[in-house]
Amino acid sequence: MGTVLRRAVGTSVASLTAALVLTGCAGFGEAPEPTRLTAPPPGAPTLATTEAFSEIDAELVARMVGHHQEALDLAALVPDRTETPEVVVLAQDITDARTGQLAELVDRLDGWGVPTGTRSAEPATALAEAEGAEFDRLWLEEMTAHHEDGIALAEDVLGSASDRPTLTFAERLAETERAELGRLEAMRGG
User: What's this model's pTM, rounded to 2 decimal places?
Assistant: First the structure.
């Protein structure tokens, strides 16, 4: 095995070990298994494969862009403000899932020739300034509200959009948001 491959395998093993150790630590009790937005099945339409859309489709996709950017903004606060392993892992899971989803949404809007949605408001000052246990409490509250809004947004899409790939994306989004909401509620002790 070459040096580069040996380093890559070593880094992967170290990362996996760290993740397993971190997720096994006590703090908020047993956290549910992470759920990520799954890729569409092979051959299924994606946001990038259709051209027909309505103004409602474009508006809803633009709203999802803002929602995803807000999730990324909230997740970006975590590494510098907490040492709670479950919060760190959840924030990374959210970042991993939303980064790809956001790119898919932006590509869709670009393909339709529609400007990207407006950026969400900055996180609340109290959250941005908090650290430790107070940050965890505020972050979990804010992220819970964010996920509740995400479920409502997905339901808006499911009730209003006409573009099949947008509907499929919303179905997957609602599933992921509900699963992550369950993790958030477990971490909050509720």
Answer: 0.70
